[in-house]
Amino acid sequence: MVQLNLPRGSKPMAGKVHRAPAGAKNVKTYKVYRYDPETDADPRWDSYEVSTDDHGPMLLDALIHIKNEIDPTLSFRRSCREGICGSCSMNIDGRNTLACTKGWDECSSHNITIAPLPHQPVVKDLVTDLSLFYAQYDSIQPYLQSDLPDPEKERLQSPADREKLDGLYECILCACCSTSCPSYWWNQEEYLGPAALLQSYRWISDSRDDATQKRLDDLEDPFKLYRCHTIMNCAQVCPKGLNPAKAIAETKKLMVSPSRKKTAA
What we know:
The chain is α/β, with parallel strands linked by helices. The chain has 9 helices and 8 strands.
């Protein structure tokens, strides 16, 4: 039979086990992905037995406790602790989410697996390199573009037009959606991914923006937009409850609209 071997580093090895003190109650085991590409030959899973009585209700509280009290070498991103900055996005029990808004009591098992965002280069442990992700966001020119002179006070918008931006502007660029998308895994260099395309549609939908046709023209490519196959992973994992797949579908409709064809001609 043919022997198929995974590439080096694909399968994490068993790592260290940090036991809870004797007599500890309400203990959960956090199985955390550990890898430093500069010093480690392969990644590993380290296990930390921790009493939930020793930290707050969120997974981020557990990680902070582990770093402060058990293992200071553990690396992860965090900032606001309020589900606003998107820094602590990671994969918890197989699902991308924010560690600061995911409660340990929401996990069905006493053994909780915590890993970095999928299919991203690992900088260290739970920290991934999101340089490409941010470059793709930058490529959609995420700022207002208007042909009109700057007003003295503000650019007015009707309540109805403002309402069109609901479900779009709330994106916090945590990358949970893009890194849960198989199409983004397979075509990461060419496909912009759910987050960037959601942001693109946010500006396309803005009545104050005059660059709609240019924005659509920039997406006229076999890969940038059309690698979305409506798998819906993006909508399922978004911690803000947004639906990037719907925004992508609306953008596709605009790409073939009669008004756009007339303008292009």
